[in-house]
Fold this protein.
Amino acid sequence: MLKISGKIINPDKPDAIKGYAETIKNIVSRGYRVVVVVGGGPYARSYISCSRSIGLNQAQSDMLGIEVSRLNALLLTYTIGKDVYLPIPRNIEEVENAWSTSKIIVLGGLQPGQSTAAVAAIVAEILGIKKILYATDVEGIYDRDPKIYRDAKKLDIVSVDELSKILSQRFEAGGYELIDPLAISIIRRSCIDVIVFDGINPHNVYRALEGAIGTKVKPC
């Protein structure tokens, strides 16, 4: 399972999209089966901000963000080419149908109230995937927000219980950061290995697969 932030895969980052497409195809050629979940990123947040300003509710705001994540996923899907399942799965049943074809699966969000981090964990659990790589725009998990605190320290290994204490979440559309509580609970109960790493460079996926970079989350 590869979860890619919408800060990395979006219309402003064509080189990143092409780089990830090649990386994913290369990983598949090595014998891996791959499922990719793409976030909504800054475009989703723009739509969500607009929706709030005109008085839409949280579920409606979430749906706008989900549709943006699906567009990001479709960008990556078309770039990868013929080996990806189409159409983009929009619910768990469609994910399971896609999995049965042995093709690469790329999707965005599924339903209101779930971050794409949670979607990645849910899909991994259902499909029996035991490793999630979270490609984000920071080098891993820190003891506090590195974008605010200059003395924040990157952690090489962290337990899910420690992670719950470190990450403060905002439970609203577009407000999720890294791994939200729902994702953490699924990772814990299904004992899924997780690596959170800097995915700005698509080639870092290879290093993350080897456990050479990022933060490893100990699920159990």
Remarks:
- DSSP finds eight helices and nine strands in the chain.
- The longest strand covers residues 131-136.
